[in-house]
Amino acid sequence: HSKSVSARSAACRAVVHVDLDCFYAQVEMIRNPELRDKPLGVQQKNIVVTCNYEARKLGIKKLMSVKDAKEKCPQLVLVNGEDLTPYREMSYKVTELLGEFCPLVERLGFDENFVDITELVEKRLKQLQQSGCSTVCVSGHVYNHQAINLHDTAHVRLVIGSQIAEEFREAIHARLGLTGCAGVASNKLLSKLVSGTFKPNQQTVLLPESCQDLMRSLDHIQRVPGIGSKTTKRLETLGVRNVCDLQAFPSAVLEKELGVAVAQRIQKLSYGEDDSPVTPSGPPQSFSDEDSFKKCSSEVEVKEKIEELLSNLLDRIHKDGRQPHTVRLTIRQFSSTDKWFHRESRQCPIPPHLIQKFGKESSNVISPLVAILMKLFRKMIDVDLPFHLTLLSVCFSNLKDLPSSKKGSIGFYLKQMSPPSGSGKRGREVEDVSPGEGS
DNA sequence: TGGGGTTAT
DNA sequence: ATAACCC
């Protein structure tokens, strides 16, 4: 028996989910400490997207309309959070800090990170065993108040994981001044679900025996990360309302309704099974900037908005140091029914001669890019007919490293250790180089 | 309902 | 290029 226990737990991962408390509001309170003890909301257009706990005590909820929020709480202080730059910068500092502990850090949005600490736990377990130490103390809460069995190495590993999670949170607080929650479990799904059980600034570890309790505690299937609104609607059609329904539902029927891949994935999720790896995010895959508005109905307005978006984006891309090879324009057209759906986009490769100019200071890359984006715009909208836009978005993607012959600031947080020897084929080469770029 | 992101098809 | 998912 003990052999099967150790064999099972040896294959068991330890994953931490770190979830910052009301992240935008925290960043704003750091930027302006006077806001510390006041009820604070972060506003984007007519929405309070998040708020601090002072505001929550007074009944403010995330994504509440500004109108409702002010009615509920006239003393509410609002700061505009439409420019994400401060949040994005702080967000990467958090990811970078976690990356100092361990290389496997995956971002989820700006305020969440998964960290696969399996190796770190193994190292500490061996240290403990060598030093003959037989007791370990859990940090934070244990889900369900489940008793810890120190003879079960799965328990011991997760307890060590809880200590590491505590260190993560302490480091984030000491170095960045941010508080947050953490969940420790054997996979991403479970770590994420358990991190929310005690809410501001606390942490929780899930032991395997409580997995089913955690899953069944979810009142609705949409609470399972990975099951979104579309899938939920299809499932409701099938009479599947909660996690137990999904667990018990015939696989074959589910596969016919949702396709094999989705069906198998979400049914495993319903049991708390998730073998998806923690995939290091690294630098961003895309840079985008968008703005929404009541109405934009002329080509001139469109051009002005695009210029604004572009100038912000070019700054960001310059700091990053890589070169984008694709641009995309996205629009949302007014429609009285469903407001925030129905986006369309067109994209195209960036001409090589323009790509060259991205890193440079003085070159005017903006006018030709505006021209390209206006062409994309005309692929979607017949400008001779009336139109009514409510959103414009520009996105640069397909980012490639500069050829190593070119120097420049590395914008991302990893100051890459250069590989042992400088021989050629380590980094990914840029294949798509225009004339004159060859090394 | 904002202003971002990712992966799969 | 879109559709789904995440925050």
TrEMBL record:
Residues 272-291, 417-439 are annotated as: Disordered. The keyword Transferase applies. Belongs to the DNA polymerase type-Y family. Signal peptide: none annotated. Keywords: DNA synthesis, Transferase. The keyword Cell inner membrane does not apply. GO terms for biological process: DNA repair; translesion synthesis. One of its GO terms (molecular function) is damaged DNA binding. It comes from Pelecanus crispus. Residues 15-228 form the UmuC domain. This is DNA polymerase iota.
